[in-house]
Structures are given as C-alpha cells and as structure tokens.
Amino acid sequence: MNGVFKKIVGFVASVVLLLGVAVSLSACGDNQTAAKGSKDNPIKFGVVGLADEQWTILKEDLEKEGIYVEYSNFTDYTQGLIALSEGSLDINQSVHAFLLSNYNVKNGYAAGNDKYLRAIGSKAVFPLGMYPNISRGVKSIDDIRQGDTVVIPNDASNTARALLELQDAGLVVLKDGGSPLSTLTDIDSDASKVNVKTVDAGQVPPLLSDPQIVAGITNNDHIRSIGIQPSESIYLADPSSEASKVYTNVFAVRASDTDNELYKKIVRIASNDKRWLDEVVLESAGTAVVTVDTVSPEDLSVLQDKIEANIRAKN
C-alpha cells in the first residue's frame, strides 16, 4: 500500500511540476508575442539628453494613448543612427535631416538596403550656439581677435553648419560662399579672422576653459552638460531661415518602417502635444523653432532626397 501511495504522490508531483513549466513557458511566449508598443513589448526609442524633462513628458503622453516606449540614451548622434540601422532601436529622435542623409550616403545605404534610414516627422530646428571662453574675458564677437582659435564639431554635417555660422558672424570666409557640404579645406585662411579646430561635439564644452580656445560652437544638449544655458551664446544663426531647413530635427526609422502605422501615430501624437513642444522650446531657452506645422513628412521626404542627391554629386 505504501508503494502504491508513493507512486500516486510522485505522479501528482510530476503533473504539478509539468503544469508549472507549461504556465511559465506560456507566460514567456506571451511576452515575446505581445503587441509592439504595449507595456510588455515597448518601442525602443533613441534620444540624446535623456535627463531632459521633455522625454519624461513625451513618454507620459504616449502612454495616455496606450503606447509604451523604452528610451536608449546616446551621447554621440551617429551611434544612435547605427543602433537604428542595426535594429536595436525602432525609432530615433536625436538628429537633423542633413546628419541623417549624410549618414546614409557615407555608409552606402540607399533604397532597398535594410539599413537605409528615412525621416517620417519633424520636431524643430535647434540653432548651434557660439559660446565664449569666459576665462579669457570674451563677452561678445567683438572680443575675438585675429588669429584666435574656435572649436567646432567634427561630424561632417555640423562642421559645415558651424563654418557657415562662423562666416555669418564675420569670423571666417568660405570659398565659393560655403554650403552645407563645406569642410575645413574650404576656409580662405588669408581672408579669415580666426583659426578653426574640429573635435568631437561632446568635447567642445570642456574646451571652453582651455586658454588656447577663445570660443566653441555646439548644440544645446552638449552645452547644458556643463551648466551653460543656450541663452548665454554670443552668436546664433537664424533657425527660421530657409537655409536652416536642412537642420530640421527629425523622427527617423528604417526605410522598411516608413509606413508603420504605430510609428506614424507617435509622430502625430508628438506633433500635437503642446505640453511636449512647449518644454522643447523652454529647454532651448527659447531658441528652438518648432517645425511640426511648417515641415510635413512629405516635405521631409523631398528634402532628404535632395540632400542625399547633393551629397552623392559632390562625392
């Protein structure tokens, strides 16, 4: 009798164990097959400057619409694009149209390539600010002397943008007037007032305490990292000009996802989210120009095609 009883107990225990395993596997399967954008399968969303309140606001407001996102923070803009191309991100909201286009061309990505990236929505134009080395007593453009050195970002798109700003400020002269494709070799050294040095964008703010540097040009994300506000810049190019349109900050996805209704819904929600857009402008100290009503997804598609064609023609 004891033998039979033991066999019954053993059988019941085995059934319970198998049921537990089955339930556990079922739960895992549910997580793996959960709808994209759900709490169990959030959209992987790349940003720069995750500590900014704007990202908390956007996440909250998307969740009100039943869309969940999981942020990945990057300090280097190109790394966010690589992550998107490689598939570890679903959407990226940290770069402008020119940087995105240049990334595609530089890497040989075009329509039909799995890693080709496209813009599906706009956000704003953020001007690059020129910030002084306070320790050298620089308070305005007029304090910059002949032969001084200015540092600018070394990625191709922002190098050209910074050079155009330096020219607009009267500090350099670019051969043939300059363009969004200008490089250091386009500087007319004899006619220019300052020397220009390129460094990683994140290294510009720390160099503003270097006695060899008189000023630096960088964006809002990096300058706030050392406690300087965008309002402290000594020069800003006009972000609302037609020439600045190529620097419209965009929502980017892989080309195969341009018609993804969920991602398009995110863009629509963000474009109509006054709370989020107000915070974006506030964090830029009022320097950002919101483009959701002036640069449509269709405009971006035409703009990106034009930029990429121009870059390929120059190369």
Could you give a short description of this structure?
By secondary structure, this protein is an alpha/beta fold. Helix content is 39%, strand content 18%.
Structure characterization notes:
The chain is of the alpha/beta class and 315 residues long. It folds into 2 domains: 43-126 and 243-314, 3-Layer(aba) Sandwich (D-Maltodextrin-Binding Protein, domain 2); 129-237, Periplasmic binding protein-like II (D-Maltodextrin-Binding Protein, domain 2), CATH 3.40.190.10. 39% of the residues lie in helices and 18% in strands. The protein contains 10 helices and 11 strands. It has a 6-stranded mixed β-sheet with strand order 2-1-3-10-4-11, sandwiched between helices. A 5-stranded mixed β-sheet has the order 7-6-8-5-9. Strand 1 (43-48), helix 2 and strand 2 (69-74) form a beta-alpha-beta unit. Helix 2 (53-64) runs antiparallel to helix 9. The longest helix has 31 residues, at 2-32. The chain is globular and about 60 Å long. The termini are far apart. The relative contact order is 0.17.
